[in-house]
Amino acid sequence: MKHISYWLLFLTLFPGAVLAQEDTDKKALHPCGTPAGIDPWLRKYLAAPTTYPESSDTLWAGLQIHLLGRDDGSGRFTPDRMLDAFYRLNEDFTPTGIRFYFKHPWNLINSTLWFQHDSIVQGRAMMFANNVPGALNVYFMVRAAGNCGYNLPYAGIAMAHACSGANDHTWAHEVGHALALPHPFLGWEGKTYNPDLPTPDTLLYDYTHFHATPDTVVPAPLDTALVEYVDGRNCAIAADRICDTGPDYLSYRWQCNAQGMSTVQQRDPAGAPFFSDGTLFMSYAADNCQRRFTPQQIQIMRTRLLTDRSSWLATEAPVTGLVGQTAQLIAPINQAPSPVNATVLQWAPVPHATHYLVQVSKVSGYGIRDFEAVVTDTFALATNLTPNWNYFWRVRAFNAASVGPYSASGRFLSVSASAVQSATQAGWRFYPTLLPQGVPLAVEAPAAWRDQPLVLSVFDAAGRLVYRAEHALLSAREWLLLPTEKWTAGTYYLVCTGSQGTVRQPLLLAKP
Prior knowledge:
The protein is mostly beta strands. The chain folds into four domains: 2-8 and 19-178, Collagenase (Catalytic Domain) (3-Layer(aba) Sandwich); 182-292, no CATH class; 329-417, Immunoglobulins (Immunoglobulin-like); 420-509, Immunoglobulin-like (Sandwich). The protein contains six helices and 32 strands. The strands form eight sheets. Strands 1, 3, 4, 5, 7, 9 and 10 form a seven-stranded mixed β-sheet that branches. Strands 2, 16, 18, 19, 21, 22 and 23 form a seven-stranded mixed β-sheet that branches. The chain is elongated and about 95 Å long.
């Protein structure tokens, strides 16, 4: 297996076409594989909650993201999907006063075994081998032991791609587990409620994987959960032991009605009828039903972070502000021609953004991307495009704690190198033709190219971008001071792109 750690700096994944990934059918996955159990910390907290610290401040919890791929690196969760999932997580937690941020670079792991693991035992080994201390470790893979996700209280969270979409709440559910929340139907895991049978007062459940060192008792170790009553008489000691969640006996994925309640009526051990609350993130209701944590659940999660998960917390806000604005594209737009091997994509900076996701696609829905990159500047260089194609491109700004919306799409026409005009033929003049290091370059441009935003790029003989600047030529002759003292002698190409098209001028840099 291979491990590659990247901070989000010029992280280019799949420089060729990026295809929609082949995820496991979500309907075939179990909602959650988190081992059943009441966390020992939760038992102590519920026994004396007023003795624990409280805070009204925003709690910044650090994440360590691990993106699994096959041995050859294929199949990995793409940056756009990662940002969608991250945005959804923070939206789901907004009422809690907890905000998550990327504490370290995304860790890219190439391991087919872990990418599509079939057992929690394999997942535990993956986490023990890769966890980073001082953060909540979260792993994304195509198959998470047959589950949408699971949390190991001593290790981390595993997330299946199919359940990590922009409208999925599995990540919020698993983070709830990581912060000590049980299922509201604790004890019913692996069982199906039968309305034709009397409801028992107690249930046995298996907690084999709840501890870091699995119990090896045969048969599996069991614990007992009391079944919760509708009138709340035993809510503090039954099921999840949280009194504002209400009884729930449904341990399978279920759909809700318009009020967010289950369509299956259940009866408690006393025969009192009720319907399960599907608005709770910790239930197994469908994603379109879920929308909240209860006040008591919120207090539990915040207290957990302030106590034995305090190593996840930042001592101050990790960002200067949240990204909320849309990037404004500068060039190329309006189907301007741009070279297939040197298209410089440029946009205006977005307040508080530290990184930008850039996508180029032949289709407006971006289901297939011909270029995708994460950069820290306000430009990106797209290469290896298909000639004579009207491309779409867009940008999404973000920082370690927030994600902005996608920009509107720009469009450009990719043209082959032969279609890029010679600067001389287009009426430009550049001199001296043999440029000494540190000497300004004189530029005379036709009137049609003046008084408009231009992108000036310089490439070396190998096609590498060595310089890029935004410029407007305001007079018939101007002097450009290029950072030539940093370049070795040889041939370079100055490429100028604007609303009139693209021109290219070779430059010969003299030896010092």
